[in-house]
Amino acid sequence: MREEGARRTARVAWIVALALTLGAVPAWARDPTPKRLAKAIDAIISRPDFAPAFWGIEVRSLATGRTLYARNAEKAFRPASNMKLVTTAAALDAFGPDARIRTTVETAGRLDGLGRILGDVYLVGRGDPNLSARFTPGRPTAAFEEMADAMSAAGIRRIEGRVIGHEGAFTGDRRGEDWTWEDLAWGYGAEVSALSFADNLVEATLKPGERVGDPAVLDVVPDTGCVTVASSVTTGEVATARESAAPADGGDDVSLEREPGSNDVRLTGRLPLGGGWDGRLAVSDPARCAAAAFRAVLESRGIRVMGGLATSRRPLPEGSRALAAHEGPSMAEMVRVVNKESQNLHAETLLRLVGLKVKGEGSAAKGHEAVAEMAKRLGVPDTGWGLTDGSGLARTNLLTPRGLVALLQAVDRQPYAAAFRDSLPVAGVDGTLEKRMRGTAAERRVTAKTGTLRLANALAGYVTTERGERLAFAIVVNNHVGRSREAAMAIDAVAAALAAAR
After folding, report:
1. Total domain count, the chain
2. Quick one: 61 and 128 in the same domain?
3. Do residues 314 and 171 both lie within one domain?
4. From the candidates 132, 342, 391, 423, which is the catalytic residue?
5. How far is residue 380's CA from residue 95's CA, in Å, rounded to a whole number?
6. Residues 172 and 277 in one domain
7. pLDDT tens-digit readout, 444-499
8. In this structure, is residue 356 part of a structural domain?
9. Residue 453 is part of a domain; what is its CATH number?
């Protein structure tokens, strides 16, 4: 075990040393000619540790269209979250960067002149995934408050019917195709709905009690009652040094039990003094959760709701009219959330919005049809592509490095190019690249989308070389059986080599 640990340390140390060296890169790696660049890249990916892995890379000059490096560029790879590049490009192409999605409160019931609505009220979602605290820190129900205040100002004091969460803009299963049961329990696999609230998840945290044997302290945010979390976790002894060094999801003895499709969660086990546990738990039936949160806001504004809660995908009743509305963020801002944060739910929402806009149906299948039409129109070769979802969570997605680079090149010529580029994480600065490539030639020069799944790592986007040339690139590695961190560091070293070219 010590020898294996030493070998792993040596592998990581080699990659770290290479990445740091590329901050002051040798002359042979600075030459941008394909032959010299190939030497730099091959030195990184040809390590014996990567022998079982499958690499796909393409690098292309945006100014000349010249391919500077290619390896297995026409082969199909699992792209992980690089799939979001396709989805966000399609969203900007279909809507433009300034489009906004409206959420409304509507009714077909009669207003009796006494402040009463004689009928049901519909909270109508049309695909805005940002009904949350993302743009209003500390106020997850800010959009609901805005609409409830408008209703109150109009003199509404009582709703005789129900509050119905309407999610009819989207069709099909709320779960992504080929997602695992494990995915569906957690926030990164949250159900997709045209009416979403707080990213369709709650965050549960556990802190140890004051003494060994005390119950652990549970907190759930937002506490809407949508998810019931029961805990029997107790406080244990102080963690050993070995336990403290373990990952957050493995350094404790907390287990989660949850039936598929259920909002009842049970936490069991022990939490050591000085430790902690947190989990982002997906909400089942998110439209109902949104309706419940909106009803609570109505009640807090003095608007009594006499009926219950329900959800619907059926067409709104004839004669429905809007009582209040909320304008969501711009499409440019929505795309930025997807790519900077690698937000799966939002990516899946955008895919369905594209289907609704282009093909008249808010489904993943129609979204993929629209993507194919975009690729053809922009001259992007999609041979070898296999699109299962919009986020990259599905393990059966397939993209080619050549297709990804062609997409990046084509988008860079579109009117929405700036919005697309601005949505990508910047190396060493923000998003999922905030802590990567610092101190190398790639810092602030690489803007790219990351991708991470079990046995799949990727990075694709743009780099400005030290001599000022802009390149589009895609780097994907599949079937690396070592630590994911090792693959990511090798990818970063390749990106640094591109940035260092003069």
Report:
1. 2
2. no
3. yes
4. 342
5. 19
6. yes
7. 999 999 999 999 999 999 999 998 999 999 999 999 999 999 999 999 999 999 99
8. no
9. 3.40.710.10
The pTM score is 0.90
Task: Pick the closest to residue 322 from 100, 161, 154 (CA basis).
Answer: 154
Q: Which one is catalytic: 84, 340, 357, 366?
A: 84
| Domain identity same for 181 and 295 | yes
The residue assigned the tokens 């780097």 is: 475
Residue that is last in its domain, among 294, 329, 364: 329
User: Is residue 230 packed enough to be buried (19+ CB in 10 Å), middle (13-18) or exposed (0-12)?
Assistant: exposed
Is residue 174 situated within a structural domain?
Answer: yes
Two structure tokens written together for 475: 């780097």
Report cis status (omega within 30 of 0) of the bond before 222.
Answer: yes
Residue 389 lies in a domain: no
Distance between CA atoms of 27 and 252, rounded to whole angstroms?
A: 48
State how far the Cα of 54 lies from the Cα of 43, in Å rounded to an integer: 15
Which residue among 81, 231, 284, 312 is the active-site one? 81
Tell me, yes or no, if 81 is annotated catalytic. yes
How many CB atoms sit inside 10 A of residue 237's CB?
11
State the DSSP string of 1-36.
-HHHHHHHHHHHHHHHHHHHHGGG--HHHH--SHHH
Does any domain span residue 379?
Answer: no
Q: Position of tokens 């500390």?
A: 138
Q: Is 340 a catalytic residue?
A: no
CA–CA gap between residue 287 and residue 282 (Å, rounded): 13
Question: What's the average pLDDT block by block, 10 residues per block, for the chain (502 residues)?
Answer: 47 52 44 74 94 96 95 98 98 98 97 95 98 95 98 97 98 89 90 97 95 95 89 86 43 83 93 93 95 97 96 96 98 98 98 98 98 98 96 97 98 98 98 97 97 97 95 97 94 96 77
The boundaries of the domain holding residue 73 are 2-79+399-500
Q: What is the 3-state secondary structure (H, E, C) of 321-341?
A: EEEEEEEEEEHHHHHHHHHHH
